[in-house]
Amino acid sequence: MTRKNPGSLAGPRGLANLRKQVNMSQATTPTSDTAGDLPLDIESMRSSALRLMGPEAQVPPSDVELATLTLTLRGHLKLLVPEVESVARKLSEDDVPRPCALVCAREARQRLSLPPGLAHARRISRSVNALCDHMEALS
Fold first, then answer.
1. pLDDT (tens digit, 9 = 90+) per residue, 30-63?
2. Phi-psi region of 103 (alpha: psi -120 to 50; beta: other; left: phi over 0)
3. Chain-centre distance for alpha carbon 136
4. 73-76 — which CB contacts under 8 Å span 24+ positions?
5. I need a labelling partner for 103 at 20 to 30 A (CA). Which of 35, 93, 123, 125 fits?
6. Cα 82 → chain centroid
């Protein structure tokens, strides 16, 4: 005699019951309350950026390395831009670092829309490095 597991997917209502129990979009998507709780890894971001700016930049990366590095740098920018803007907006309007950081963040956001390639990757690496500088200066 086989016993049915009440939580199994067998039967017409099994999958529907599972969907009711676990809403994956809520389980895996950070809420706005928790999204900014994790600290940025500035050291790692700067290290990625320096791969296209430092002495290693003399040798162009392979196509695969460039694609991977570009995606990494774009991800760093998508994390850094809102954080720098948030920290900068907390400063008074007469505070000189505020407009500098906001302009840098706006320029970085614009660079995300440029066509891909080595020049694009180098531009966004400079933006990542500059935004890391702003985060360290404003924090």
1. 444 444 566 889 999 999 999 998 777 778 889 9
2. alpha
3. 17
4. 73/48, 73/49, 73/121, 73/124, 73/125, 73/128, 74/112, 74/124, 76/45, 76/48, 76/49, 76/128
5. 35
6. 9
Structure tokens given for 48? 């990625």
Per-residue pLDDT, 37: 64
DSSP H or E stretch at residue 21: helix 14-21
| Encoded amino acid at 104, one letter | C
Q: Which two tokens stand for residue 14?
A: 């099994």
Residue whose entry in the numeric block shows the structure tokens 């920290």 = 87
Report the predicted TM-score, pTM, of the whole model to 2 decimal places.
0.71
**DSSP, res 5:** -
